[in-house]
Write a structure and sequence with these properties.
Blueprint: E1 2-3, H1 12-32, E2 39-40, E3 43-46, E4 48-51, E5 57-58, H2 75-86, E6 97-102, H3 111-119, E7 127-132, H4 139-146, E8 152-154, H5 160-164
Length: 167
């Protein structure tokens, strides 16, 4: 989930570069553990939400394209969209990795949507990481998603993502 609100305008290149910088490590992890069959998909959110691709893309072919900013930060709608994607998964599925990249300043009432997302059985086994984009990021909002402060990192620390797959 990538925050593409107005506040992110000057950070979009940094975000895209950060995402793409971690892909080779994820590809290596996927080669080492082929049963993981890793794929990725970007959900951009601002004034509304949309997936950048209609379906997940195998990590071997994945590359984040240029993302553009504009609009509000409707984090609740992002959580609703993720909830729709996860609601049919069970704990028997390979747990998804949920990544939130944001400044943590939503403009909507995200708490109800987050509560619904947290109620899904699969959410409890998901790996959840949040990456703060600015020094002024509201890490408390990002921690609500990630659940523990240790899983909220600065965007420059995105390389921790592949290592978290070992836990």
């Amino acid at each position: 989930m990538v925050d593409c609100s107005d506040a992110m305008n000057s950070h979009m290149n940094e975000i895209t570069d950060a995402i793409n910088s971690v892909v080779p490590d994820l590809q290596e992890k996927n080669k080492k553990y082929p049963k993981m069959n890793m794929s990725a998909r970007i959900l951009r959110f601002s004034s509304g939400v949309s997936f950048v691709s209609p379906t997940s893309i195998g990590i071997d072919r994945f590359r984040a394209g240029m993302l553009f900013a504009g609009g509000n930060c409707e984090l609740g709608k992002a959580f609703d969209a993720i909830c729709d994607q996860l609601k049919n998964l069970t704990k028997e599925n390979i747990p998804p990795i949920l990544v939130l990249i944001s400044d943590g300043h939503p403009t909507d009432d995200y708490k109800k949507s987050l509560s619904v997302l947290r109620s899904l059985p699969i959410y409890k086994v998901c790996i959840r990481l949040a990456f703060a984009v600015t020094d002024q990021a509201d890490r408390s909002v990002l921690t609500e998603f990630a659940t523990v402060p240790e899983d909220v990192k600065d965007i420059k620390e995105i390389k921790v993502l592949p290592r978290r797959l070992n836990s």
